[in-house]
């Protein structure tokens, strides 16, 4: 009783559950209630929670929680199956990489697990979306086909280190620049025993990384231009609101563009690219891609651009559309009954007000109605309806690979003048407003700036069965043009002793440049072509590859592997 009279004394301390209940750790909804209530008594079934377990958003297929009773798959069961075993398009990109049962196959399986974290770094968020690859790779060959698409990144992998590509000396770097400017041919042996000590190899590596660019604005990424607004927005562009400065930039750009075209006509430049914010143009000299005349490819195009070219008198063709029409015509001739049935369906859809594109007979006279005496009972379509129906099919292929336009011969000069004077070549609003198109060339030209691709080599651990092995990788970032790809693979053949693999990332709008345009000339002599273009600055073997007719279609090489000095690839 005396204790109760003391100040600050409360008899409630003998009953603390009210205070402890507030500090008691709350149970998760996914945990069984038996944890709090204790173990169930014998003979009673444990209670079952109705709330499902919440999925971990950061889990992958390998570390996701599994139901009770399921066993973990063995390592060999988790290995990606061969391309022939299933559709690789449903698998991860690193699973559809090297699948040839070699050391490079084990390297490819750990491409993103072991290399991406170190090689990509902050650029990992910009990785392209995985693409589907064919189920059957190509047969081994001594050379891979020419790939006219522009690559944004190359990732080479090998069991041998790439130390020879690291920390070039000042003299080696200067020698590489001099070899490029003087178009010096470098012929390396088939295999180099000590690549790190080979000065000739290191100088040739520096030489293969050089390209020429206009305009040169170091604070802006000038390639790629299509879809580049997100990367350019927020950066300084004083010309966007200054028309006088825009005119100066376009005047300088026109001089550089004309210089490149003159070099192309003189066969001192093999090819070059014009990259705008809407489309890309590839100019190729006569003798390349199996053509005996100068050609220009434009992709993607729109109906407005094609109409403007027609109004300027530029003769061009749509080879992929013509190829599709020819294929359909052959199929219809082979099966007459199918043709009759399809034409009957087209007639019904037109009577029902469908949107099917009309045939070429729609604009002919309707005199046959008068012969039947029903000209007053049938409503004739007006000229506007006929025109709209004809234009619909043309508009539907806008911004697609099928909209590829081909310009040949003297029409390329008309195209040059058209592009110089075209107002829509430069954006009038947005982050790229007032910025001239990007010119990319393998050789020097007036107003061009020498640039180098960024190269970096790292080492990583790759899982191989129950152990780990060292894997080396070499990353090349930048606008990789066809000649650079061929030169780099030639160097790796000698330095890595004919065993390496590579993952290639393509600028998708340029993949259609690999389509067979039907311009191959049977009378074209490859030896004569190499002699005529001998002064263009490319290696003779590179010219021999680029002079072949394209065989990749509308796709490009995504994966390349060399084993025993023989190439296999996937596109």
Automatic annotation (TrEMBL):
<feature type="compositionally biased region" description="Low complexity">
    <location>
        <begin position="81"/>
        <end position="92"/>
    </location>
</feature>
<dbReference type="GO" id="GO:0005634">
    <property type="term" value="C:nucleus"/>
</dbReference>
<protein>
    <submittedName>
        <fullName>DONS protein</fullName>
    </submittedName>
</protein>
<dbReference type="GO" id="GO:0033260">
    <property type="term" value="P:nuclear DNA replication"/>
</dbReference>
<dbReference type="InterPro" id="IPR024861">
    <property type="entry name" value="Donson"/>
</dbReference>
<feature type="region of interest" description="Disordered">
    <location>
        <begin position="1"/>
        <end position="93"/>
    </location>
</feature>
<keyword id="KW-0539">Nucleus</keyword>
<keyword id="KW-0217">Developmental protein</keyword>
<comment type="similarity">
    <text>Belongs to the DONSON family.</text>
</comment>
């Amino acid at each position: 009783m005396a204790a109760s009279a003391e100040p600050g004394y409360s008899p409630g301390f003998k009953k603390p559950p009210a205070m402890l209940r507030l500090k008691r750790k709350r149970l998760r909804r996914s945990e069984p209630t038996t944890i709090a209530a204790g173990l169930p008594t014998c003979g009673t079934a444990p209670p079952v929670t109705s709330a499902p377990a919440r999925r971990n958003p950061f889990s992958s297929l390998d570390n996701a929680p599994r139901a009770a009773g399921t066993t973990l798959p063995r390592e060999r069961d988790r290995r990606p199956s061969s391309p022939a075993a299933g559709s690789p398009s449903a698998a991860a990109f690193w699973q559809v990489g090297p699948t040839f049962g070699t050391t490079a196959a084990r390297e490819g399986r750990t491409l993103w697990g072991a290399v991406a974290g170190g090689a990509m770094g902050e650029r990992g968020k910009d990785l392209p979306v995985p693409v589907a690859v064919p189920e059957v790779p190509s047969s081994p060959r001594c050379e891979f086909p020419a790939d006219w698409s522009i690559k944004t990144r190359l990732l080479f992998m090998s069991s041998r280190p790439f130390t020879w590509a690291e920390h070039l000396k000042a003299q080696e770097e200067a020698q590489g620049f001099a070899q490029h400017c003087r178009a010096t041919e470098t012929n390396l042996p088939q295999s180099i025993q000590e690549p790190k000590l080979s000065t000739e190899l290191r100088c040739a590596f520096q030489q293969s990384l050089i390209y020429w660019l206009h305009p040169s604005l170091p604070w802006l990424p000038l390639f790629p231009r299509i879809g580049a607004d997100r990367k350019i927005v927020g950066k300084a562009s004083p010309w966007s609101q200054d028309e006088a400065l825009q005119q100066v930039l376009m005047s300088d750009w026109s001089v550089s563009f004309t210089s490149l075209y003159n070099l192309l006509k003189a066969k001192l430049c093999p090819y070059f690219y014009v990259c705008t914010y809407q489309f890309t143009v590839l100019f190729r000299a006569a003798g390349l891609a199996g053509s005996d005349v100068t050609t220009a490819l434009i992709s993607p195009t729109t109906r407005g651009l094609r109409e403007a070219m027609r109004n300027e008198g530029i003769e061009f063709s749509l080879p992929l559309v013509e190829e599709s029409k020819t294929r359909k015509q052959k199929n219809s001739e082979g099966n007459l009954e199918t043709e009759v049935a399809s034409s009957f369906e087209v007639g019904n859809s037109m009577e029902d007000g469908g949107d099917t594109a009309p045939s070429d007979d729609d604009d002919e006279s309707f005199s046959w109605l008068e012969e039947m005496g029903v000209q007053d009972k049938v409503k004739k379509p007006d000229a506007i309806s006929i025109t709209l129906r004809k234009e619909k099919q043309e508009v539907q292929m806008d911004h697609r690979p099928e909209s590829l336009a081909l310009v040949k011969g003297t029409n390329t000069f008309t195209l040059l003048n058209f592009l110089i004077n075209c107002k829509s070549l430069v954006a009038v609003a947005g982050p790229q407003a007032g910025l001239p198109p990007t010119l990319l060339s393998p050789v020097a030209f007036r107003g061009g700036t020498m640039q180098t691709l960024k190269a970096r080599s790292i080492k990583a651990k790759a899982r191989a069965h129950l152990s780990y092995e060292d894997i080396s990788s070499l990353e090349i970032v930048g606008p990789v043009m066809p000649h650079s790809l061929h030169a780099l693979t030639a160097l790796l053949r000698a330095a890595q002793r004919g065993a390496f693999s590579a993952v290639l990332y393509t600028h998708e709008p340029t993949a259609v440049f690999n389509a067979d345009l039907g311009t191959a000339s049977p009378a074209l002599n490859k030896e004569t072509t190499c002699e005529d273009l001998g002064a263009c600055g490319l290696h003779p073997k590179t010219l021999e590859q680029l002079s072949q007719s394209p065989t990749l279609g509308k796709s490009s090489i995504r994966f390349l592997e060399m084993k025993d000095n023989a190439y296999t690839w996937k596109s």
